[in-house]
Amino acid sequence: MSVQLSDDANIGEVFRMSHIAVIGAGQAAATLVAELRKQGFDGDITIFGDEPVPPYQRPPLSKAYLLGDMAMDRLYLRPAEWYAENNITLRLGARVDGIDTAAKTLLVGDESIAFDQLALTTGSTPRTLPAAIGGDLSGVYTVRTLADIDAIAPHATEGRRILIVGGGYIGLEAAAVCAKRQMQVTLVEAAPRILGRVAAPETADYFRALHQSHGVDIREGIGLARLIGSDGHVTQAELADGSMLDVDLVIVGVGITPNDGLAESAGITLDNGIAVDIKGQTNVPGIWAAGDCASFPYKGKRMRLESVQNAIDQSLTVARNMLEADQDYLPVPWFWSDQYDTKLQIAGLNTGYDNIVTRDSGAGAVSYWYYAGDTLLAVDAMNDPRAYMVGKRLIENGKSPAKDAVGNPETDLKALLK
């Protein structure tokens, strides 16, 4: 079969192949296969996913879906019938057990399935607590999949006592939802402060105060020593300072790890995930990776981005390069988090910052601008979409406005773009 790339894509002529396989059925996979069809690829496409449902959005799981404000079918990135209409085979609940890179085959149960090119969009898995400290008790959950939230929701009811372990964005978002459900929420963070790895003290101060105003008990610099259970179900938590908490359930949000075991067993190079080049290809020709599972070169280093934006943008590039586009992946990272009535929007990466400029736009809108010397790196904007959009464009264009202008609320932000 053949593929004719769209005229406006400017990414090649005709590429001949018959079957593209995609392992993993999340945001990256859904984006990649849609782009393949958009670019005119008319060969066979198969998505293999562990879960029994079509690709769906993950961000609303711990927010609108857990709150009961979003139905399951609204989570789906595309209706299930779209895949059939576009001649895309969904193999749901189908775990791929092995990849033979030389023979170009996948092992799925007793089946051996041939492919011409392969995309690994295997995502990531939440870290869990060790069984030795009670991590295997019932009532202890992570927040990653639809099944996770379906298991949590019946127990996340008014008056129940919940412990959140981890003060990153996942933990804080879960705490916000549980507080809105009138639960008794305690959040513990072993590091000296919440958001220690990802945000400035100013942003942490903002969200600490926000959560405390909603009744969340935040304990920083205090880790979890162990969980205690009765009849196999968690009932108490002992913290590192010796204090004891009565708990009905626990949510663990202590980071994620890339799902790269399948790639490793196939001899594909790893480096903090599946290592790809600037095009998105692994060390094995014809095998690509995108999304949470993939690390890629960025500004002289190698990085792995855990975000919807990266899953979408990298998958678009990989899909085109599977069709010989020869495009580089050059992201301008952006992220968001919704907590209570606050929308946090983040542009750029703050790694290496040495000073922060605060801009108070009034009416509850504030933004923190990260600089390394005089170079703008990133912006955290709380309920301030204008600051976010301007900051994002400045970073994209490599511009760094004067810090005194940014911090002056009288400055017209749009004027900084000129």
Q: Which structural category fits the helices and strands?
A: alpha/beta
Distance between the termini: 49 Å
Biggest sheet character: 5 strands, parallel
Gyration radius from CA atoms, angstroms: 23 Å
**Beta-strand content estimate:** 25-35%
Number of strands: 28
Number of helices: 11
Helix amount, in percent? 10-25%
* Low confidence ranges: 1-15
Name the strands of the widest sheet in spatial order: 5-4-3-9-21
* Mean pLDDT over the full residue set: 93
Shape: globular
Describe how the helices and strands are arranged.
Layout: E1 2-4, E2 14-16, E3 19-23, H1 27-38, E4 44-49, H2 64-67, H3 72-75, H4 80-85, E5 88-92, E6 98-100, E7 105-108, E8 111-114, E9 117-120, E10 124-126, E11 140-142, H5 146-152, E12 161-165, H6 169-180, E13 184-189, H7 201-213, E14 217-220, E15 224-230, E16 233-239, E17 244-246, E18 249-252, E19 256-258, H8 261-265, E20 274-275, E21 287-289, E22 294-298, E23 301-303, H9 308-322, E24 334-339, E25 342-348, E26 355-362, E27 365-372, E28 375-382, H10 385-396, H11 403-407
Helix pairs in contact: 1-9
Task: Put the structure in a nutshell.
The protein has 418 residues and is of the alpha/beta class. 23% of the residues lie in helices and 32% in strands.
